[in-house]
Structure prediction request, 67 residues.
Amino acid sequence: MTRLRVVIDKPACCGYGLCAEICPDVYKLDANGIVYVDDPIVPEGLEDSAREGAEACPQSALAVEEI
Ligand code: SF4
Prediction:
């Protein structure tokens, strides 16, 4: 089974929040509105949503890679 890992380019994040709107179970926003994840490994069943959230980022600050 393919597992996914989220890679964040934090300096590129401008806090638009699209990722967290699309996939709130993976992408969270800190007090400054900047993205973070509790765990870079995407939980099973959230792969499509995590990919969608990453692809929606206008800053290309998120990548989802197979591990
Ligand atoms: S969509 Fe991109 S710029 Fe917006 S909060 Fe998420 S990572 Fe940051």
Observations:
- DSSP finds two helices and four strands in the chain.
- The longest strand covers residues 4-8.
